[in-house]
Write a structure and sequence with these properties.
The complex is a heterotrimer of chains A (about 325), B (about 450) and C (about 270).
Chain A (H helix, E strand, L loop, with lengths): L20 H9 L3 H21 L2 E2 L9 E2 L3 H7 L2 H33 L5 H9 L6 H13 L5 H12 L10 H4 L1 H26 L3 H9 L4 H29 L3 H6 L9 H10 L4 H34 L1
Antiparallel strand pairs in A: 1-2
Helix pairs in contact in A: 2-14, 3-14, 4-9, 4-11, 4-13, 6-9, 9-11, 10-11, 11-14, 13-14
Chain B lengths: L1 H28 L11 E7 L2 H18 L2 E7 L1 H13 L7 E5 L2 H7 L7 H6 L10 H6 L9 E7 L1 E6 H6 L10 H11 L7 E4 L10 H10 L16 H17 L9 H9 L3 E7 L1 H6 L10 E5 L12 E7 L6 H11 L2 H11 L16 H6 L3 H10 L23 H17 L4 H21 L1
Parallel strand pairs in B: 1-2, 1-3, 6-7
Antiparallel strand pairs in B: 3-9, 4-9, 5-7, 5-8
Chain C lengths: L6 H24 L3 H4 L13 H6 L9 H30 L6 H13 L6 H11 L5 H25 L3 H9 L4 H30 L2 H6 L7 H6 L9 H21 L1 H13 L1
Helix pairs in contact in C: 1-12, 4-7, 4-9, 5-7, 7-9, 7-13, 9-13
């Protein structure tokens, strides 16, 4: 941590310019410390414990056979095909859901940015999915919408086919037929409203004069969108993408509920959970956790570059 | 400096105040957080099957009032409850005094010292009448050390249930001891007997206790096994493959819609709603299908589990009460078990909720009770199936450990679940049985290596 | 815009209805009897009943469903308060009077969110077991706080950064103390942002399932955990589960709808800087 290097401040004018510098630095840090200490204690210490457990031979179901395992757990992890495929699944799931909900959210935000009758009601309806408890949403999609026997989707198909006098409507088995898409659709439904909210906020903070000026200069709607709106929205898109990724990478509820990790949908949180709580192989699960953290840090470094572009203007 | 001093002092104080406030708010919200410390209360963790919900309903009036022991239940769906129970018992957290465990967990839980032996309680409690408990149940809840570690709440085997009315209408008859070839043939003929009706319901949902419960019994009777006597894995051996192909082909051709996601609940629903003509599953399903509010009550026939190379093929399973070793209330826990697994509890349920809801399949006396027999058309077949089940020798070859529809080692939950996900994908058509089982063989090899080294 | 046929408006309405449809269907299903809830094609006009809600509130098991709801409320409100009390000063030290290299600190905060929660679950469980914090809401409060703190600091910093430096300097020159500055100058600008942050923290805490599943039991079980217990492996449960889902989601829905303006306003501040 670089917080401790004692040097001058750089933003606002020091309130007491003649105060001793060191004390001034600590005064600045004081409000930060409770949060920092709290977070280190609650998130970093467990990770140290995970690191220790990862080199132990420790399966809770076999308590007499424990000891030092060296790097054997790591060997098992890197050769585990399940873990590799769940890494890939996590990446695909995150990218697909974040992109789809960003695009959908953008379209909806553009619609909502126009004035029309009942805009408030429509906005409320669009926000609602984000406000449903995720596990409730997952249960809703699995049992009430996707179920091939009595789910709403197939029910609607039956009804529609009946209007045309057919007794043999297609009754696809949504979850088995397209398991990844099924999980993704449920998540996109939940996260689109969140993206829409952020982008709507962005649209509403758009300087209206520039748009007017462009219009007067003869720019068409597409040009206004492409050259004015989109650049203005970049930060909002980045923020939405970042927050969305953080939460969807960690998604557990939807995968656990909708497919129980079956049909090739297991993502990292689910796979590690399974090693912990079904296999009870604490050593190997911890090793997997460490590997995932290392990979996350690598990816996060790229993500943080994005973040730093969010912060750059201010820090300079 | 005024400001800075102010802030420096304020921060920790503020943090302390908040923590205290949050903690006290939380505790008062939770009702003092003292459930576990309450002297006259026991905590029970159990699966949310209907029999368990019934006992929840009856406890206050018929147990707590008599004994003064309050019972706090935590009920969870099967998959969740297994995770939670294994976590609770392996760490001996002592939060729960009793949990609903099965004959799968008992042997290795006992070996690890996680369960309290019940022999002394049983010996003193003559009214409980341990000898009335069916022998195969007693055997499967006794560990290698010869001690008894759990008492059955209800027991089950597996058998074939079918819509007698539907098959009669098509002039089809199911033999009392059918073979799988006969069943496949019947399923093909019954397919479409009514609009939207499929031939047979077989579980396809991932999970060692879901698709692999019925599937492993098929593997057994086709001559296959997970492991040979010396722990050689045989998951991609010809018999295992043949059995799995047979199962997957049957369910794909004449099985229920949504088969890769169908477990016990989905099949039960399919059967009740007339979406399938036959169903191979737990004998305990018969009670639910025959319940007063079931649309198919009285229309059903029952036959023994279909076989191929063995004489019988039904599984053996029981949800039983086990007492956690770390619990400090073994006496109160036994009182609860003595009540819940006792003969009088069955009569209580029969009288209050109806005889079809009795937690059966565990006591010989149940099958002599005329009220029960009258209300339960499947009683004879159930008793026969449970008696015929031989957990030590369920297949055509000697096994390294006990278990019919499972291999009784702790690693099997993980192994079975992982392979089941592949099999489920094969039922969905997104992979082949060969690929699924070749992958399974590798996983099984890892497990086997551990045991061969011992 | 004139009051004429509004194609965009119609499209927006269509989208709104599509997105809200599953929720509407959930509410309708919760008001049906179990057999009516599981028909194909769906029975729109089936008689309405409150049986699902009665079941949720313990009609057949005698178990009260209030404790899990109260537990969830305690955990969410407790952790939200704690988050705000920790995050506001931290955000202050990262924006108004920033420490040196405050961007590094921000990165650290955010990076804790990128580590998979599940990797730390085992030590968290073992620690709780050793010190007797299993099945205790205070422990959930602490964990939820750590879960939400990084995002809260992140958002809050942007809100505080909105406060114009000139005003702060002017206030300092006028001799205003910290408390006065915070109340008079900072609060009015940052209030919507703080409200939005609080709401988001509340929602994420209320929704949390993984920690609650693993760490609670008889006493401290939260509403989402309780909700999952209605999925039985034997028998029909759609109406019951929908009723439970409606009740459990209601506090979040209500809070979210009431504060949606704040949410938009707050997030817009959060993104700009």
């Amino acid at each position: 941590m670089t917080v401790h290097s004692p040097t001058a401040q750089h933003r606002s004018v020091p309130l007491r310019a003649n105060a001793p510098r060191l004390a001034g630095q600590w005064a600045r840090r004081a409000p930060l410390l409770p949060a920092l200490v709290f977070l280190i204690a609650v998130t970093q210490l467990p990770f140290v414990a995970t690191l220790v457990i990862s080199v132990l031979r420790w399966n809770a179901l076999d308590p007499t056979n424990t000891g030092f395992a060296g790097l054997r757990n790591y060997l098992a992890v890197v050769t585990d095909a399940n873990l590799r495929s769940s890494m890939l699944n996590t990446a695909v799931l995150t990218v697909a859901v974040v992109l789809a909900s960003l695009v959908l959210g953008l379209l909806l935000a553009l619609l909502l940015d126009r004035r029309f009758l009942g805009r408030g009601v429509v906005r409320t309806m669009l926000i609602a999915p984000f406000l449903v408890v995720p596990v409730a949403a997952a249960l809703l999609w699995k049992h009430v919408l996707y179920n091939p026997e009595y789910g709403l989707l197939n029910g609607v198909l039956t009804e529609v086919w009946r209007w045309f006098g057919s007794d043999h409507p297609p009754q696809p088995d949504w979850i088995s037929g397209m398991p990844k898409l099924a999980v993704e659709a449920a998540l996109v439904w939940q996260w689109t409203p969140f993206m829409m909210l952020i982008l709507l906020a962005g649209l509403q903070s758009r300087p209206i004069e520039a748009v007017e000026a462009a219009r007067i200069d003869g720019a068409n709607a597409w040009q206004v969108f492409r050259y004015l709106t989109l650049p203005h929205l970049r930060r909002y898109l980045e923020l939405g993408g970042l927050l969305g990724s953080i939460y969807i990478v960690q998604n557990f509820d939807a995968v656990f509920t909708i497919t129980s990790g079956g049909l090739g949908t297991a993502n990292l949180p689910y796979t590690i959970y399974q090693t912990f709580y079904q296999a009870h192989d604490y050593g190997q699960a911890s090793a997997a956790g460490v590997v995932v953290v290392v990979v996350s840090i690598v990816i996060a470094t790229f993500a943080l570059r994005l973040v730093s572009s969010l912060l750059r203007n201010e820090a300079s | 400096m005024v400001i800075t001093v102010e802030l420096r002092r304020a921060a920790p104080v503020l943090a302390a105040v908040v923590l205290a406030a949050a903690t006290s708010a939380a505790c008062s919200g939770a009702g003092g957080g003292g459930g576990a410390a309450d002297g006259n209360a026991i905590n029970v963790l159990m699966v949310n099957n209907p029999q368990m919900l019934d006992i929840q309903k009856l406890t206050e009036e018929n147990f707590t009032k008599q004994t003064g022991i309050k019972v706090n239940y935590t009920v969870l769906p099967e998959n969740d409850v297994r995770d939670k129970i294994s976590q609770e018992f392996s760490s001996q957290a002592g939060q729960y005094d009793i949990a609903s465990i099965s004959n799968y967990e008992v042997p290795f839980y006992a070996k690890n010292g996680w369960l309290a032996p019940l022999d002394d309680f049983v010996a003193k409690d003559t009214a409980f009448d341990q000898n009335d408990v069916l022998p195969s149940m007693r055997q499967s809840l006794t560990a290698e050390d010869g001690k008894l570690y759990a008492e059955p709440f209800y027991g089950e085997s597996s058998f074939l249930m079918y819509r007698k009315d539907v098959l009669d209408a098509k002039s089809l008859t199911v033999p009392d001891n059918p073979t799988w070839d006969q069943v496949a043939d019947l399923a093909a003929k019954a397919d479409g007997a009514q609009p939207g009706m499929k031939g047979i319901c077989l579980r396809g949902q991932p999970g060692w206790g879901q698709v692999f419960a019925p599937l492993t019994t098929v593997v057994n009777t086709f001559g296959g096994t997970w492991f040979g006597k010396d722990w050689t894995p045989q998951v991609n051996a010809p018999e295992f493959k043949q059995a799995t192909k047979f199962y997957v082909d049957l369910v794909r051709a004449h099985g229920e819609a949504g088969a890769p996601q169908a477990g016990f609940a989905e099949c039960l629903n399919n059967m009740e709603q007339g979406k399938v003509a036959m169903w191979y599953d737990a004998t305990s399903a018969a009670g639910l299908l025959n319940a007063a509010d079931s649309p198919v009550a009285g229309k059903l026939g029952f036959a023994q589990a279909p076989v191929s190379k063995t004489k019988s093929a039904g599984w053996l399973y029981t949800w039983a009460w086990g007492v956690q070793q770390a619990s400090k209330k073994h006496d109160a826990a036994w009182k609860f078990i003595s009540w819940a697994s006792g003969r009088d509890y069955e009569k209580l349920v029969g009288g209050k909720l109806g005889w079809s809801k009795v937690p059966d399949g565990k006591r010989a006396s149940t099958y002599e009770n005329q009220d029960y027999l009258k209300a339960t058309p499947s009683a004879r077949q159930t008793q026969q199936a449970i008696t015929a089940a031989d957990p030590r020798n369920p297949g055509t070859q000697p096994r390294p450990t006990i278990g019919i529809q499972f291999v009784d080692i702790p690693e099997f939950t993980d192994l079975g679940t992982q392979v089941s996900q592949q099999v489920s994908s094969a039922i969905a058509g997104s992979t082949t049985v060969d690929a699924a089982l070749d992958g399974g063989q590798q996983l099984a090899e890892k497990v086997a290596a551990k045991y061969r080294a011992k | 815009m004139k009051r004429t046929w509004q194609p965009w408006g119609a499209l927006a309405w269509l989208a709104g209805i599509l997105f809200a449809l599953p929720i509407g269907w959930m509410v309708l299903t919760s008001l049906h009897s179990e057999p009516d809830a599981a028909t194909n094609p769906p029975s729109l006009t089936a008689p309405l009943t409150l049986q699902g809600y009665r079941e949720f509130f313990g009609a057949s098991t005698g178990q009260s469903s209030w404790p899990p709801l109260v537990n969830s409320a305690s955990a969410s409100i407790g952790s939200t308060v704690l988050v705000l009390l920790l995050a506001v000063p931290a955000a202050y030290a990262l924006s108004i009077r920033p420490v040196r290299k405050w961007t590094d600190v921000m990165f650290f905060f955010l990076s804790t969110k990128m580590m998979p929660v599940v990797a730390g679950l085992l030590p968290v469980y073992l620690f709780a077991q050793k010190v007797g914090l299993l099945d205790n809401i205070s422990y959930l409060v602490v964990l939820y706080t750590s879960m939400n703190l990084p995002i809260a600091v992140w958002l809050m910093r942007s809100f505080l950064a909105e406060v114009p430096t000139e005003i702060l300097e002017a206030a300092a020159l006028d001799g205003a103390g910290l408390i006065t500055t915070l109340r008079r100058v900072v609060a009015p600008v940052a209030a919507p942002g703080i409200a939005a942050t609080a709401l988001i923290c509340f929602i994420f805490s209320w929704n949390e399932l993984l920690f609650a599943r693993v760490l609670t039991g008889v006493v401290a079980g939260t509403a989402p955990v309780y909700l999952t217990s209605f999925v039985t492996s034997q028998g029909l449960f759609l109406a019951k589960v929908c009723a439970a889902a409606v009740v459990v989601s209601l506090p979040v829905l209500a809070a979210g709808f009431a504060a949606q303006d704040k949410l938009v306003q707050g997030l817009s501040l959060g993104a700009v800087k």
